[in-house]
Amino acid sequence: MHISEGVLNLGVLGTGYILTSIGVGIGLKSLKEEKIVKTAIFCSAFFVASLIRVPLGPSSVHLVLNGLVGVLLGWQVFCALFIALLLQAILFGFGGLTTLGINTLNMALPGLVCYWFFHRGLRGGKVVSLILGFLAGFLGVFLASICVAASLFCTGEQFLNTAKLIFIAHIPVMFLEGIITALIVQFIKKVKPEILTAT
Amino acid sequence: MHLDEFSEGHSFFHKMDPRVKFIVFIPLVFVIALSKNITAGAISLLLAVIFIFIAKTSLKALLKRLVVVNFFILFLWFTLPFSIQGKALFYLGKYIFSFEGAIYVLSISLKANAIFLFTISILGTTEVFSLAHALLHLKFPKKLIELFFFFYRYISVLHKEYQRLFQAAKVRAFNPRTNLRTYRTYAYLLGMLFLRSYERSQRVYQALILRGFKGEFPLISHFQLRKQDLVFAVFMYGIGIFILI
Prior knowledge:
A: 199 residues; mainly alpha; Arp2/3 complex 21 kDa subunit ARPC3; 2 strands; 71% helix; B: 245 residues; two-stranded antiparallel sheet
């Protein structure tokens, strides 16, 4: 879910960079030296996960997993998405350097919200964590598509229809992310619960 | 997985000092992205195409990326000309495809593709580790670069790990479809990937500590500023100012 270069205006791009640098700053501050390697390798795993195409109806979609990253990393979700999008920007030209701030914000902020809402609850019983896991995955994409729609709309009213269409196109993805996130959380709880409490 | 596939070569761009690349590239893309007139977009695209030929990148790989980049743009072509009021180019039912809208999206398409080609020709022609090193020189937070370094280093390792897991699933007759069984399998594969990345990170960290790692990487190669790089920087700033006007 990237907005490409040359679309947004200076106000939106600037706001994105300011808020993202605050988020990355707080994330870096809370990142202890001995946890850098762990967080970084987690980011690589998420990066690999986001390259996978999962079948959905007649086509297939890429996973976003920003809800899960948020729940697992807290404020560091900003650092994680920033470096992932930076790499995509300089290597592939997806997204891009001017939109790096706003694209990071659009994905990381929902992740942070998921962390606040669900981080504690996920340690609960099986049914509770299944439901909260689903909500974390669902809300991650739901809020991210609202953020993307809002950044387009703030650039100009002519983007209203585009923004609506982007939101609608992501509704199936929200449910898919919810299901997959719930099941991943379930798996981690069964096999290595300490990952959920590591941060 | 080979990530920085454009970085191999001996062109002018491959030899350039990465620090110069960033200080030229960042203002340039902002100027292009924010420019409002269509000639600026066209000129940047033309220059970007010339740069691609100077950089002699593989065209096949480039085309593959171009398709992905233009996916979002295509989406805009389907929506924006209908929402912007103006002279009608043609009608689709009761909807009007406006001339002004088409010009607006055309300008976005030119800018986005120009920036993409500049990215590949200028930044893509340097190894990612050198780019990270250059960002360190440009006063990026050290912790962030360290994070980036390990992140980049382990992508290909974990990608291989995932492929192995996926192959194991396939051998057991896993056939991806739209159903819960498929999603559960993917979720468990990914869960396993996260788990292995967690355990690997512990091993890596212990190995680093054992070898006296203190958050610093000793560097063998250092950057060298050449005269050509400075000339290039001045030339590009000229282009930037030209687009601005």
